[in-house]
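YM 10:42: Ribose 1,5-bisphosphate phosphokinase PhnN sequence, as discussed on the call
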Amino acid sequence: MTQGRLIAVVGPSGAGKDSVMLGLCGALPDLHLVRRVITRAPELGGENYEAISFAEFEDLATHGAFAVHWSAHGLQYGIPCSVNDQLKRGRDCLVNLSRKVLPGAAEKFPRFVVLNITAKPETLLRRLTARGRENRSEIAERLAQAEKPLPEGLKVATISNDGPLTETVARAASALQPVSVNR
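YM 10:58: structure's back
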């Protein structure tokens, strides 16, 4: 059996990564959606994540519970090592990652693909404001980060999410399918 792909979904805050990921899981039911561990309060929503304290996170990280982990925007994020079991079973795994961990993840996972979700600055601003998780200063910081390029040398499919979600999901599914066919 061929090992599954780790499909890293990246893009600026407000690009709609979580919505696209859920849509992809509906369009491609064999995908496994990886649930991140985050030091964010559980009531802040957005994605389905495991909310834990900073102390719990540090303990898990120290004991090797994460395949990948990083900090961003004052929070800690981790991808549980259980992702390796899914990949060994031949399942493609979809995970929301930070751009800064892509090179290390590409080294760690042999079948690594990046799905870069983008949106125009005005779309990002509208979405960030509507979700109500950040203040103006934090939104400005996230918008400034949106223009940062991806690391070079990665297999990347870039999809714009400015239009209807169904169209974005269809384009993303199509971009991922040719690789799946050649397993």
